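LOG
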Amino acid sequence: MDELLASIAAKKQRLDAMRPVSRAALLALQKSYDVDLTYTSNAIEGNTLTLRETAELIEHGITVGGKPLRDHLEAVDHYNAVLWMRELAAKATPMDETTVRELHRRIVFRSQPEIGGIYSTLPRRIAGSPVVFPNPVKIPQLMKEYGERLAKTEPEPASGFDAHFRLAAIHPFADGNGRTARLLMNLLLLREGYPPVVVRPEDRKTYLDTLEQASMRDDRKPFQTFMHERLDATMGEYLSALQETQTPEAKPFKPPGSEPKP
């Protein structure tokens, strides 16, 4: 972990040294990342849209025949929630329980408006997982305490990852808990000058296994290590993309996996 933290710190120094970035380059880079963030976060929850299909929907409003309507609505909702997250990250507005509920409301705004920002009154389970979530009667108090702690979160990646785990462990909503936890985590990272972290579909098993271990064995080290590895990788990709935007022959940045397969 020490080497990982040193690598992240070195990349953060390089990133800070490259700022400020031109507004046009920054907006282009952010849009590519935000589409990728939407695709990956939805994909690990079972959404069937590919990265290209997600991009076509967001950029041109093109829907995909044969794909569920809900998958399209989830993509639009998540992308708009990401844009709101970026707006909030740029402000000094304190974060609390209301922030979490508003993030969730936006994430399910079109796909499941009836549950937006509303705590579940029913038991929640994840298929195939032995994790037992808190009794729904306890959710209001747990979330009140969570919001109070969130307002005092330390400005470091580990705290953002811990906020992700704790929200996922409470699992306050009927659906959309993972997407909300990841966006909240990235909101905290953005406020400290880090790029948003993407958890890719191919990492789904490791991601869920480490979350489960943190809950079942009270051992958060594997989850923290995994998320720091993802942050380190993301920062490497982000730095390379920024360097490309600063060269005359720079090409539009495309996130990994966006190229069509032969």
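LOG (cont.) second protein
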Amino acid sequence: MIIASAPAKVILVGEHFVVENEPAIALAVELRARTIVEPIQKYERIYSSKNYGCCIKISDGKVSTKGNAEVLSPIVKIGEIVEGIAGLRKGYKLTVESEIPPASGMGSSAAVAVATATALGKLYEIPLTHEEISNIAYEAERIVHDTPSGIDNTISTYGGVIVFRKSEGFIRLDVDLSPIRVIIADSGLPRSTGAMVKKVRKLKNKYPKVLDPLYHTAGRLVIEVAKALEDGDFKRVGELMNINHGLLSAVGVSNLKLEELVHVARRSGALGAKITGAGGGGSIVALAYADDVQKIAESLQRVSERVFVLEVAREGARIEYHCAANNMDTF
């Protein structure tokens, strides 16, 4: 048996604008998706999700399904990719379970994809690099989000804090975030990342002379946030997060519920609060000093479906357990 995991993510600043090649900053946070792989003798592949209660079985060229099996299409794709890289066939049962709420702006699908690629790489005994794992997960993300930026699979693979730009890749920021906590408040409103990205792109194409400067401003804001993080100036980070929220409102991805959550967090003592992810629903992210977290979280719990108080996950994709069939060693 093999168990691999990958963390959720929060985009601190830069979402939507990152799709058009502006930079963004993402944090990995300690909520994890896990993939459990059990080898089986027969050449068949069984994929299931504990969260969704669905299953796909592929055996002798036949496909059978149970429940809403379409949600498993990305991990089936990963199975095909890894098998192709390995150049050999193995039978297995693969089960996904995740602590990350779906459609919440926390990169649930990317974390599942990264954990799956990591686990199958171990099963096939392929020494996949972090870059290869991220690239494989990106192919699965394309099924979910059509034209993803790549930031979700990157931060979930590598962990920590990164500055990401679509055309240039990413750099890791070596920053001390121990004095602060990340608070996530879920609006409870579902949304489609792909649909929201298309909505924003349509608006930008309609008013390019108006929105091009706004996109440039968003990129400059990210650079300023990176400097503030490196300086440990979290007050400045919070102020810039608030400005970024205003930019996201300007491109049409906020709503009354998200505004309520953002302003409750700010009034309760957050350094900054904004939409995280695609908007239109999903979650907001607030940054706060550890001493202020309880008050903020209690205030948000009165108006939010779910509230998470999280630390940054320094580690990205990892093997949590490996029991070899022959010698039963664990690693």
